[in-house]
Here is the input.
Amino acid sequence: MNTYSEQRVQSARAVPPGAGASRTGGASAPGAGLPRSGSWTVAPEHVTAPDAVVLRRAYYAEVAGRYWNRPVTASEIDQGLLEFPDDGLVAPEGGFVVGRWAGEPLACGGIRRLDPVTAELTKVYVDPRARGTGGGAALLAALEAQGREMGVERVRLDTRSDLVEARALYARHGYAEIPAYNSGPYAEHWFEKSLLPAPSA
Here is the structure.
């Protein structure tokens, strides 16, 4: 039986050329400092594993830095992780995945059950150096697969208005905007995607 723990979601793609802005404020091309070609491997990892912790901190540093429009300090990251703990991102009611490009951990995402038929995606993050290489799509595929193994029928998520790239990613992969399903202090857009098989014609 092919369980989620055995699954590997791979996306082989050359890193495209082009300019982009890093979150430290300097200009850099997507894939700068990475192998020019490779593949994404996304696999389950405990949320407290070393690579998972580094990526969770990078996620918070980016979303908080964009909100405050300034770099975030290490102590602010520590405080933010305390205020917004990653509860529920462990089996059997959730999980966490790490994405690696050519073996380097550069992406992550989590899923947690909200109710018997609904799960929520959270902490979906791709290192700025690796954006444009298919990492977001690979993360979503892996998290949706885990949602199916959890037995849920749909996945939801919330995001902010300024996270334009994230909203575009979700729309491209079949997520539709829905009315608010929570009252998160930073939630401004809410998305949902059905995990049920498409009805036959």
Remarks:
- Residues 1-28 have pLDDT under 50 and may be disordered.
